[in-house]
Every structure is written in C-alpha cells, then in structure tokens.
Design goal:
8-stranded antiparallel β-sheet, single chain, Penicillin V Acylase, Chain A, disordered N terminus
Amino acid sequence: MKKQLIPAIILLSFGIFIFQPSHVKACTGITMTAGDSSRIVARTIEWGGSFLNSSYVVVPRGYTQQSFTPQGVDGMTYTARYGYVGMAVEREEFVAEGLNEAGLAAGLFYFPNYGQYETFDVAQKKNSIADLQLVAWILGSCRTVDDVIEAVKSVHVISIDPRASTVHWRFSDPSGRQIVLEIIDQKPIFYEDKLGVLTNSPSFDWQITNLNNYVNLFPGSAPAQQLEAVTLSAFGAGSGFLGIPGDVTPPSRFVRAAFYQATAPQKKNAQETILQCFQILNNFDIPIGIEMSRGQTPVDIPSATQWTSAIDMTNLTVYYRTMYNSTIRKIDLRSIDFGRVKYRNEPLDPVLQQPIQTLSVK
C-alpha cells in the first residue's frame, strides 16, 4: 500500500509543473568553445506556472539511487561510478542539468507532443528508469558520449505518469562531441548536434531543417537599395538580422540561439566564454505572464526563466544564476573529493531575494 501512495505524493508536488500546457515550459541551450579550447555548454530553464524549488546536488562515487515508476520507487537501482554535481527541479532526484568528474555534461529539455516512451512493463521494472532521472543515471555511469549511446540501449526509459510531457536530452563531452536523444514512437533516436543548439519541440532534425528559412540573415547591416526613385536604407546597426523571429516559441528561440551563437566573437579563455554565454542567454529570459490569457493572474515569481547555467567541461566547473539572484555562482568539481564527500542537496538560492548593493557617494 505504501508504494502505491508514493506516485501520488510525487504528482502532487510535481504535477502542476508537468501537466499544465498553458504555461511556458521552455529551455534554450547553446555551446561555445574558447580560444584555449575550453568547451562550454550553457542553457536556460523556464517555467511560468510555479516556483520550481530548484537545488543543486553533490553526488559522491558509490551513491545508490532507485528509479520511480508508476507503481512507486521500485524501478532500476543504480550506483554512481563517477561523482557529479547536478541542478535539480522540484525533487532532488530530478536532475535537469549536470556535470560529472570525467567532464561529461548532461541535461534534459522539455519535448511536449512529439516524444513517446515505451509503455511501462512491470516485468521490466528492474531495467526501467524514469525520464526525469535519466540525467542523474547517465552522469553517474558514463565518461563519454559513446558511453551514453551504449548505456541507453540497456534500459527502458519510462514516464512516471502518462499525462506528463515528454523530454529530450543533450549530452556533451570535453572532446567537443554533442548528441541529442529523442525517444519517438518508443524508439531512442540519437542526433549528432554539430551546431550545439537545442530548444524544445518539434524534433531536432526539424529544427535544423527550419534554419533554411532564414538563409537571408547575416551579421552587420544591410546595404542601401534603390526602389525606383526612393532610397531604402537601414534605420540602424544590425539590419542584416531583419526578420529574425522574436517570439518565445521553441522554433523561434532555436533560430535566434543559432545565429547569436554563430556570430559571437570567440573569447580567449574559459572564464570570458562563460560570461559571454550568460550575456547571450540574457536574450532568452522570458518575462512572467506572457503565457497567460488576459484576465489570468500570473504566479508571483520574478521571471519565467528560473535559472541559467553554464558548464565548463574542460575545467570541470558549474556556473549558475537565478531569477532571484543574478550574481553568477560556481561549483568547482576539482575541489571536491568524490570518494569522500557526503551527498548534499542545497537550494540554489538560500534567500529568495535579489541582493541590491547601496553605493556610498560622498
């Protein structure tokens, strides 16, 4: 009886997040390489329906967890071979983004209406893992993208509840290789993401094809043109990007992210590139309330973009800022002894208030 109660508890705490289609469930991911060859993956996570209660977890080698299933906490048991730091949403088990001590980065992005997992089979529950726990399992198990591909073949990825939105995943390693995993028609499909951009639905291959609709875009300013007796000239700088979509839908964010990333000048080292990633992703912050119909009351949170992270796979460092504190904070995995550290789960923001510094002017 106890096991039957556990899914209900999970869904009470998480159901508002995963079942409401009217709220922004958006993520935008980019990838940058510094002049010193440091590899960086960065992303946003959005949800305008409620506070996500986000935290970071420090997971030591040898730490054992068990997957949720629709029946309870009775799915696959897995033990971390590699220590990692992850950023979780709603529950500490649901790691949405993270980095392990081998330099492998992994993250989930929402993928509504296009993915389809296997139907949960009780007979396969010992090899079944919930979609929202796949990142944690991969970070604890794999060193490289190739390891990820082999690992996924050995498990059944399931949903805790069939009403929930599906997700897809991004995996990157320090070699610069990046893949996207989507489970469509109950089959895992891997895409090589040579562009390094990811958002949400539709599928990744569609998003890449859709970029062809913007072949006319280019950096800089468009040259003046003569239209009969009228001279047409740009109002200001950047007119080469006239026509780039400005809405917050996943296809539009994918296009913007691709062009902003591609035209960004390469920085000389990892730290400069990390700061550049945060600056680029500032353009993808989603104001609270825009997903609401007129007359609906937005949730009392500062932004639909609840946090932004950047991961330096080369130098094993996780950076983040949040809607409550725009100060960039970092966790250096090189300073953690994953053979001795204890498991930790800490809120991203101990205080839910943006600090403001008063300058003394005399």
